[in-house]
């Protein structure tokens, strides 16, 4: 039997239908930067899976009963209970979103000059580490560099490299090891429990704190039940509980697997570290029983982290992603293999091989998806990760030219994704005609949000 979503729509919202001319105008006005587009000009919005999930009636009825007390709100206690049931962390702090949780935890844990090691740091995670005068070093496993390999756990950290680094000249400077599940910066690939267990043992032996960046804890757990031997009989909840049990603490955005518009949490075992975080939280986010979250979002996330672990939901979501991946392959568009759950990563460098990295094939494909179909998604290639000179010319290309098609939770149905596949197939038919782009304006900081480009 095919998997289907275990919910039905009770409230829907319309989506804009536009003409090619309107889209061409809107994209030109936006400086060919999808972040500058008004959402009312986007038909299918696959820019991100963050904060875009559809909430349930269970979440909304809980939200309606939210307790907005400044201190000691009932909503906080329900939030904390849901998180301790899952994670077993004795200390739990809310934060308004993942990057705020990162800022509070890292400022309390790291000293300037220290190094963070990770399978791959997410971009805000890296930024928060670097803002403290620390260094973020990625140690992805070797298989991650082979986009076509079907290795099941390409999100893993390179264990040998981790051990070498912890025994090397920088050993005294390692402030933490951070494992991102799933590995968002690394193609959305999962981390195996074997890898996490090995990291946990190494960190314990070396006395280095191990932190999870657990934005997609449920999707990682689902992929473990599907791909790792010994876990086929486990529930996603059991796997997620075991993963949290292996670490000293975590930061987690709840805009992803919390299926909520806003929210995050910090979970910790160490009481002294928790005390420092609490000071920082109160000074910069809010009191310890809301930490920048509204009562509504405390309630929505408390319900959301239960709903997201429903195996029927996860099976349907994973099936949706694999089906779109298969359709893309059938149309001759290669994706980063194997397909994950929260997004597909299209190999634009290969599809648009007539465009060199300096003409941004990933960006060109993303723009073409918008121009032909009103579909919005994000480039993950040289525009985002490359290095530029003062004349905005690319000097160092990114290793890959990818486009990320993110899949919002519970939002679009099969017919929407069939449409996306049709547009992609249409582009693939005469892909050599897709034009490239050059950069007109690029700020130094947070470049990809504020770029302006022109078609070449
Ligand atoms: C989204 C995300 C973050 C940051 O969370 P926000 O809620 O967007 O601030 C951190 N790490 C990972 C892996 C993420 O996907």
From TrEMBL:
It comes from the Bacteria. The keyword Hydrolase does not apply. It holds the Pfam family Beta_elim_lyase. Its EC number is 4.1.99.1. One of its GO terms (molecular function) is tryptophanase activity. Its cofactor is pyridoxal 5'-phosphate. The lineage of its organism: Bacteria, Bacillati, Actinomycetota, Actinomycetes, Pseudonocardiales. Residues 45-422 form the Aromatic amino acid beta-eliminating lyase/threonine aldolase domain. InterPro entries: ArAA_b-elim_lyase/Thr_aldolase, PyrdxlP-dep_Trfase, PyrdxlP-dep_Trfase_major, PyrdxlP-dep_Trfase_small. This is Tryptophanase. Keywords: Lyase, Pyridoxal phosphate. The keyword Ubl conjugation does not apply. It is an enzyme of class 4 (lyase). SUPFAM superfamilies: PLP-dependent transferases (SSF53383). Gene3D superfamilies: Aspartate Aminotransferase, domain 1, Type I PLP-dependent aspartate aminotransferase-like (Major domain). Coiled coil: none annotated. Belongs to the beta-eliminating lyase family.
């Amino acid at each position: 039997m095919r998997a289907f979503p275990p919910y039905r729509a009770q409230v829907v919202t319309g989506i804009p239908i536009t003409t090619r001319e309107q889209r061409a105008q809107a994209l030109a006005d936006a400086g060919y930067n999808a972040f500058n587009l008004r959402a009312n000009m986007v038909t299918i919005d696959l820019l991100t899976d963050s904060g875009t999930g559809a909430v349930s009636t269970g979440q909304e009825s809980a939200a309606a009963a939210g307790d907005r007390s400044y201190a000691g709100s009932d909503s906080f206690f329900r939030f904390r209970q849901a998180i301790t049931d899952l994670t077993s962390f004795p200390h739990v702090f809310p934060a308004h979103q993942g990057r705020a949780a990162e800022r509070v935890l890292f400022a309390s844990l790291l000293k300037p000059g220290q190094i963070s090691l990770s399978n791959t740091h997410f971009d805000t995670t890296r930024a928060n580490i670097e803002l403290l005068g620390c260094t973020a070093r990625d140690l992805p496993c070797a298989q991650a560099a082979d986009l076509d390999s079907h290795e099941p756990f390409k999100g893993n950290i390179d264990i040998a490299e981790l051990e070498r680094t912890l025994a090397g000249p920088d050993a005294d400077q390692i402030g933490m090891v951070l494992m991102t599940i799933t590995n968002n910066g690394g193609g959305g690939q999962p981390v195996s429990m074997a890898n996490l267990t090995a990291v946990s043992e190494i960190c314990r032996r070396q006395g280095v704190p191990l932190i999870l960046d657990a934005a997609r804890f449920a999707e990682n757990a689902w992929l473990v039940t599907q791909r790792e031997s010994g876990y086929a009989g486990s529930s996603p909840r059991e796997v997620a509980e075991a993963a949290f049990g292996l670490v000293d603490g975590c930061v987690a955005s709840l805009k992803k697997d919390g299926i909520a518009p806003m929210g995050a949490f910090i979970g910790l075992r160490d009481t002294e570290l928790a005390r420092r975080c609490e000071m920082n939280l109160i000074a910069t986010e809010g009191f310890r029983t809301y930490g920048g979250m509204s009562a509504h979002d405390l309630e929505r996330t408390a319900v959301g982290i239960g709903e997201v672990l429903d195996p029927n939901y996860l099976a349907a979501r994973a099936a949706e992603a694999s089906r779109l991946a298969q359709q893309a392959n059938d149309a001759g568009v290669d994706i980063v293999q194997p397909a994950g759950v929260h997004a597909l990563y299209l190999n634009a460098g290969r599809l648009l091989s007539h465009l060199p990295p300096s003409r941004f094939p990933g960006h060109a494909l993303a723009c073409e998806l918008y121009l032909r179909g009103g579909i919005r998604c994000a480039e993950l290639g040289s525009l985002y990760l490359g290095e530029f000179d003062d004349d905005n010319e690319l000097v160092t290309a990114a290793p890959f030219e990818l486009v990320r098609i993110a899949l919002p939770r519970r939002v679009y149905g099969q017919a929407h994704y069939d449409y996306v596949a049709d547009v992609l197939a249409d582009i693939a038919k005469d892909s050599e005609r897709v034009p490239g782009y050059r950069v007109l304006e690029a700020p130094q900081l947070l470049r990809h949000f504020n770029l302006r480009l022109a078609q070449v």
